[in-house]
Each structure stands twice: as C-alpha cells, then as structure tokens.
Amino acid sequence: MTTLGRLLVTVMAAAALVAVTVVATRYLSTPKPAPSAVEGAEPPATSSAPAPAEPAAAPTPPAGATVAQSSNPGSADLPRPDGRAETPPPIARRSLGEVGPPPAAVPAGLPAEASAKAGPGEACLPVGMAAADEGLAILDDRPVEAQKRLSEALRAGIDGPKGKAVREALNVLADRLQLDADSARGDPYSKSCQVASGDTLIGIGQRFLIPYELIMRLNRMSSPSLVAGETIKVIQGPIHVEILKGRYELQAWLGDVCLRVYPVGLGAENKTPEGTFLVKSKLKDPPYQPQHKPASEHRASGAPDNPLGTRWIDIGDHYGIHGTIDPASIGRGVSEGCIRMHNEDVEELYDLLVPGASKVIIRP
Residue 281 belongs to what H/E stretch? Predict the structure, then answer.
C-alpha cells in the first residue's frame, strides 16, 4: 500500500472513532437531575385529576359558638375545570378576643347605640327618650301635653335618672291637673259637676266611676254634705292600676295618663300572681285573720302590729293590696303574695279605686 493510501485509512479511522465517542457520550451518560420546585410556586397542571386528599380536621369552635353548616354536605372541595380542588372562601369569624354571642342585627330605623342598650321588648326606648325630653321641657308652659308625653315615656319603659325625673314629674302634674280642686284648662279628664237636689257623693261617684272619698279630696271637703246648686270638681274614671313586678312598682292610670307611681313590696319566690284582676272590695283598718294561720297570729283592726297596715284593697283569691308595719319590706319580695305599700301611699290609692270598676293588672 502506498504512503497516500495509508494516510487515508488513518484519517477515516480517526473520524469513525470521534463519531462513536459522540454517540456514546449522548446515550450512555447519567442524566442531570431537574431543578427543584420553588416553594409557593404553582405546580404544573396535569392531564388527569389527582386523587382527593383527606380533609383536614376543622378547628374546634369555642364554647357557645354557633357553627354554620353548608347546605351541600361534602362540597367543601369543589372540582375546578382544570382538575384541581377549589376551597370555598372562609367564613368571617369574630376575633378570639371577643367574648359572647355575635352582636344582633340592628332593626331598621333604630340607632345602633340605642339598640345595644335596649333589652328584650325595649325597641321603642328611643321613642320614650324623645317623649321624656319633650315632656320635661314643657312642664310649666303646657302641663296637659307634658303629662301625655311623659306618660308615653313611662309606657315605653324609660329608666335610669331620666326615668326617675319622669316619675316625679308625673306625680307633680297629677296634683296640678286631675287631683287639684281647680279644673285645668284643656284637661280631658277634669269635669265640673253642678249638684242637684237629692244628689249624694256616692251617687255622683257612681256616675263618674270614682270613689266618694276622691270627690272629698278634690274639693277639700271635711264632710260629705252637699248643697244643691253648688259646683264641685270631679274627674271621669275609672282609675286602673298596673304593677310591674320587675321594678317593684305600682302605677295608677287614668286613661292614657299616669297619675301616680308608687314603690311596692311583693311575694317571696315570685308568689305574687300575674294577670288582670278586678277590685272586689276595700276596707279601712282591716283585721288580720288569715285562715291558714292559728288564732294566736291574728291581729285586730287598728292593732299596731297588724301586718296589713291601714288599708286593704281586695283583688280576689285571697290576694290584695295593703299597707305595712315593715317599711323596709317595700322594694323586696317577702310577702305571701300580696302587694305591700307604705301606709300613706295605700291610703291615697284607696281613694282612687272603685270596687267593680277598677282593674289591677300585674305584669312580670
């Protein structure tokens, strides 16, 4: 073989060796690992949906909390079109520092501040506050209107310092209007009555549904004698009573206005019944003779240790409104179910109520 031939063979062999080395390097070497995924990056989508993962246990709610349940059980993880699971947005929760139930929704038209202060059945409290402010502002100039507005405030359940002012003002207004000897201009309850021949206080009282004792009070009469032709002051009754057990309070109402507010004592262990009663009878200086107690505990009429005090107003079923010899029991629940009053208060109330016509409504 010539020298040129040997050179060509060497070049071809070297080229073949290079080609074999390249192929071997490409197909026989170990592949490098892929770069790790970045934390928090979204993983690539796959063509098939992954197997559903076991749901994590929900945190245990605090005691007293209300757990809202889905209307579609088992739908906590909803499949998306791309095969991944979609978690619904979390329910808004109160911070862990808040104690108690979630705040109630504020009724339409009621300020949030007033709603927070109002208890059950007190949604009308803002109305009562407005009526109280208006009534107290016109006490001297327009007493008839003031009495009506303050009575509305009392009906609305006004309490606190302003409630005390309302109650005191109502007592004063009644003395100026209905319970004064002069008929106030514009007062719908005050009337003038001209005495006719043969009239008696009892007969006039029956006509206007008020006790004869009240007619004597109104006209500052020392005796029940009447003179034909004279004019006397009367009011159109009857007067009714409402007792609010929760407040230990008795209110005397004439139509839409409150004439008197008195503190009372009530039955121990909620023994004072609730409901509507009718005044059955009245008695001055009543004897104390309970049938369920021995005679040794009975007390005579007018006895200084008679627990009924100076007056008894019978409302039926052995219950009544009476006086007391224990003033410290007023404002407390210590009786066997009757309503106790200070003696001077029950003596005044006695002169306002008519047996067979006046009602006594006892509320919680």
Answer: strand 281-284
User: Is there a domain that residue 265 lies in?
Assistant: yes
Give the other-Cβ count within 10 Å of 313's Cβ.
Answer: 27
- The gap between the terminal CA atoms of the chain, to the nearest Å, is 133
**Cα 77 from Cα 246, distance rounded (Å):** 53
Domain that holds residue 161: 122-176
User: Does the annotation mark 124 as catalytic?
Assistant: no
DSSP H stretches of helix in the chain: 3-28, 112-117, 125-137, 143-155, 160-176, 201-208, 212-218, 343-350
Q: Give every CB contact of residue 23 below 8 A, 6+ residues apart in sequence.
A: none
CB 346 within 8 A of CB 321: yes
Whether the upstream peptide bond of residue 238 has omega within 30° of 0, thus cis, is: yes
Spell out the long-range contacts of 79-84 with Cβ–Cβ below 8 A and sequence spacing 24 or more: 79/49, 82/45, 83/45, 83/46, 83/48, 83/49, 83/50, 84/45, 84/49, 84/50
> pTM for the whole thing?
0.66
CA dist 344 and 311 (Å) reads 10
Question: Which pLDDT tens digit goes with each residue over 57-88?
Answer: 333 333 333 333 333 333 333 333 333 333 33
Both tokens of 69, joined, read: 């349940």
* 198-221 tens-digit pLDDT: 999 999 999 999 999 999 999 999
* Three-class secondary structure of residue 278 per DSSP: strand
Per-residue CA distances from 165 to 78, 118, 261 (Å): 63, 19, 12
Claim to verify: residue 272 and residue 345 sit in the same structural domain:
yes
| Annotated active-site residue in 124, 292, 298, 322 | 322
Residue 318: active-site member: no
| Cβ atoms of residues 362 and 272 within 8 Å | yes
Is 254 inside any structural domain?
A: yes
